[in-house]
Amino acid sequence: MKILTVIGARPQFIKAAALAHEVAITHSLSEVLVHTGQHYDANMSDVFFEELGIPAPAYHLGIGSASHGAQTGEMLGAIEQVIQTEQPDWLLVYGDTNSTLAGALAAAKLHVRVAHVEAGLRSFNKRMPEELNRILTDHVSDALFVPTQTAVDHLGREGIAGPHVHLVGDVMYDVALNMAGRARERSQILQDLNLSEGQYVLSTVHRAENTNEPQRLKAIVEGLQQVAQTLPVVLPLHPRTRRMATEQGLNFGAVQVVPPVGYLDMIRLEQGAALIATDSGGVQKEAYFYRVPCVTLRDETEWTELVAAGWNTLVTPTDANTLAQTIRSRLGQAGQDGQLYGTGDAARKILDILQGGLCR
Ligand code: UD1
Ligand code: UDP
Questions:
Q1: DSSP 8-class letter at 199
Q2: Which InterPro entries does the entry link to (predicted)?
């Protein structure tokens, strides 16, 4: 069986690592990786292949940054050609980026079966490009691999139910379990940034709804600055956010701004943080994997079970004081224990299901 996997953005490289490792020990399977080039800086792409031992992509489409339509359209045409060359049994995509939608749509139109990993997530905010990407991808998928029961229920309400919907847990948890020890052993990031275990706030910001709204970006930067008056705040900054903050002339003050970091350094920073303040989907979950309280800088989250379990608090980032107060009030506040994202074998389950044919 041949799987053609389309990836292109930072979180997809990390998610792809789980399946790539299982494919490597499954002789009856081959995986052909296609990198769309949506993320291309070395610290947004290459570093993850090196650290996570992901094979080099067989195809690098080199699409790069563009408007949504132009980027997705270019990917669609290029992926179509790869599908025609490779004739895979399955095309597999992760999450909700433009690379996800382009891969799924190209395959569906060529009648190649689509497997969607991290299916069923919903923010119920159609202004988010990710919400459109995930709804459309779910609706053209032949196998839906779902991380939580909540996501299964979302799909059911849209008429997607049956034996092709599989609750398998979260592949990011597989990767976290594999890499957590290595990060503690190998990463020197706490020393390099002069941070003490449990004595700093880690933040990431990249969502369009925050970076493209001047008032929100200003509130986030000023809120983090307020926190940094009493506790170090470290901010590995996504290139989109750096560009927008520079254009707006924002000053990060005492916030320790660093370029995006590799995965081992990132999870070491997460493990050691007193609190994580983020608008990232993946980072919200990783905060929970390492049992660090999280404040999510958004109006809503797809990962509602984290809020219900007391690990995550939402704050609409429109006011710096409220943001800083929310972060301060959540310091040291643990949530309930539990296992919200499966048992760390999601990738194995996905491959077994694809091979077993339990799909539409
Ligand atoms: C994309 C995804 C988002 C995901 C995020 C993960 C879409 C619509 N959005 O958002 O769902 O959470 O990736 O990080 O697919 N840039 C660089 N170097 C790079 C990559 C990007 O400088 O290697 C800059 C460019 O100015 C680019 C901007 O970042 O225009 C945004 O990149 P893009 O991939 O369009 O969106 P992300 O915000 O990264
Ligand atoms: N990440 C990383 N370095 C960074 C920021 C994030 O390795 O500087 C990792 C993070 O640990 C998580 C993933 O990237 O595994 C999340 O990706 P991102 O926040 O870009 O996207 P999202 O999850 O919101 O789609």
A1: S
A2: UDP_GlcNAc_Epimerase_2_dom (IPR003331), WecB-like (IPR029767)
Rounded to the nearest whole angstrom, what is the distance from the C-alpha of residue 206 to the centroid of ligand 2?
A: 10
C-alpha 117/C-alpha 211 separation (Å) is 27
Q: Give the model confidence (pLDDT) of 162-220 as tens digits.
A: 999 999 999 999 999 999 999 999 999 999 999 999 999 999 999 999 999 999 999 99
For residue 356, what pLDDT band results from cuts at 50, 70 and 90? Answer: confident
Query: What values do phi and psi take at 238, rounded to 5?
Result: -60, 140
Q: What is the pTM of this model?
A: 0.98
- Domain total of the chain: 2
The angle, 0 to 180 degrees and rounded to 10, between the axes of the packed helices 346-356 and 171-186 is 140
Structure tokens at 21: 């490792």
Distance 240 CA to ligand 2 centre (A): 13
User: 206 in ligand 1 pocket by Cβ < 6 Å?
Assistant: yes
Ligand 2 atom closest to Cα of 237?
A: 8
| Structural domain for 144, as ranges | 2-170+342-357
- Contact call for residues 118 and 95 (beta carbons, < 8 A): yes
157 falls in which pLDDT band (50, 70, 90)?
A: very high
Q: Within this chain, do residues 62 and 19 fall inside the same structural domain, yes or no?
A: yes
Q: What is the DSSP letter of 58?
A: S
Query: What residues contact residue 73 under an 8 Å CB cut-off, 6+ apart?
Result: none
Listing from the earlier edge strand, what are the strands of the sheet with 233-236?
256-258, 233-236, 201-204, 275-278, 294-296, 312-314
pLDDT tens readout for residues 127-153: 999 999 999 999 999 999 999 999 999
Q: What is the pLDDT of residue 24?
A: 92
Q: Is the CB of 138 under 6 A from ligand 1?
A: no
Give the CATH number of the domain where residue 214 resides. 3.40.50.2000
